[in-house]
Amino acid sequence: MKKTFTKGASLILLLTVVSIACKDSFLSIVPNGQLLSTSLTTNNGLQGLLISAYAQLNGRGYSQTASPTNWVYGSIMGGDANKGSDPADFGAITPFETYLINASSAELNARWQALYEGVSRANSVLRLLPTADPTVTAALKQQLSGESRFLRGLYYFDLKRTFNMVPYIDETVDYGADFGATIKAIPNNTDIWPKIEADFKYAYDNLAETNTQAGRANKWAAATYLARTYMYQRKFTEAKALYDLIIANGKTTNGKKFGLVPQYAQVFNAANENSEEAVFSTQNVANAGSSDAASGDLNLNYPYSAGIGATCCDFFKPSFDLANSFRTNANGLPIDIAQANGAYDNGTNELKTDMGLLPADAFTPDTRAVDPRLDHTVGRRGIPYLDYGLFTSAWTRNQGFGGPYSTKKYVFYLGQQGKVADVSNWTKGWSATNIVLMRYSDVLLMAAEAEVEVGSLATAMSYVNQVRTRAANPAGFVTTSDGKPAANYVISPYPASSFASQDVARQTVRFERKLELAEEGQRFFDLVRWGIAAPTLNSFLAYEKTKLSNAYSGAVFTAGKNEYLPLPQIQIDLQGKDILKQNPLY
User: Fold this and answer.
1) pTM of the prediction?
2) Which pLDDT tens digit goes with each residue over 237-253?
3) How many CB atoms lie within 10 A of CB 320?
4) How does 31-70 read in b/e, with b if 16+ C-beta sit within 10 Å?
5) Count of C-beta atoms within a 10 Å radius of residue 464
């Protein structure tokens, strides 16, 4: 009986194998570790792809210089900051501060790759949406497409203002078998501003005002980027109309009416993330199993001292010129908004520093009037540095190369380290602090600029003075241990004379952007779009060289060239010089 059962079972097994083998499905084996399109077109799959597009806002996988925080491309190149650290440490940044950039720069290519990676991830969502699972509702498709196009617009926005003429690739381009024939054949001979504008317009028209997840883009975040896109194209009338709507109705994704937080320093404090001023921010967490979940693009920019907490690496040091610009007169106004004849950068008005002094040497901070935002932006000798104690030159790695100051925005407080600092990597500089890429004071100042250009000077003044009034809140001043102001803080709203003519008003608004948004990655791009980069930055170089000659050796800004960076040579080689045309004079 047992023998018969065995034979019968063997026959059944043989017939089963033959039956399966005769079907095509027998040969269809799902590869290990590979996602099928059917998995990606579910709600969870599409949401995962979209989250990966958000994650690229930190420039992950390429370089600390690659992300839209723009601390190198917007601030160091704009004169806000010196490279800092030692000459040999991350020397690849030095050509950006001296405008001696070569197309073979690996940092340049990392910037290109990181931004196009963001584009690619956004395109992946848009490409799969038409074949989404039936459970993905029309409303959900609208949300996913709106957020994806917002992110694609943002990545292309930075590509445009960094390189100017770049190839535009959307979700209709085949990334697969046709890669060589299609993507490599896309030239950079068309201005992509209309495409960027269309993406932000679509997001504005299709995104909801609120979402249960605060970090997502909403209708009003899209509106602010659309208005900024208008400003870069000098479409001031369109921008003004949209800013009117934003200021009257705009709210954050978590439902807060746009507004200025009461104290300036709160904007950059991890304890106050996703506030009413945070129009759009990166979202970061610490100690979640990998430092990739934290923000690492600013991890080199902490003071250099084992006692300061993060310990590394004293990059991104505020420039002498920037610090001088916070000097005010007895009336609490800038000494000279036009900065004519080096009004700030001379022996009479420049800020007193401890340049060349040892930590043990006697030093008394400047007692003349300064804008209170100075000490929320610049770490300087004798002034409290957050809750770490009085700033000292012992926290400076190489004063002769980077200067006496340290950056202050987005540095976490000593008391926050246990919660905010990520300890899974080589430095605690990876942090859970969100980086605000668009904040409401920036919106107000852009709106003021639009009002100036269309001739509404009184409205422009009201917007700018909202920003200055917040800065003047004494509750937000840096104080000493006895609760007194740490310096002679004097700031006042602008009088009507500062907006007496369009030209004067224009200079006033531009100077206020320099102060309010210092070290936030905007300055260089502002100077270029205003058409004054060459004279402004060559004046900056002439002064900064007198302080840091070894850091700025050979530095010169060439008009008609340095407004944009060269396309990475490796990208031209990959696509061919007949496809990608290099920028002028490179």
Assistant:
1) 0.92
2) 999 999 999 999 999 99
3) 25
4) eeeeeeeeebbeeebbbebbebbbbbbbbbebbbbbbbbb
5) 29
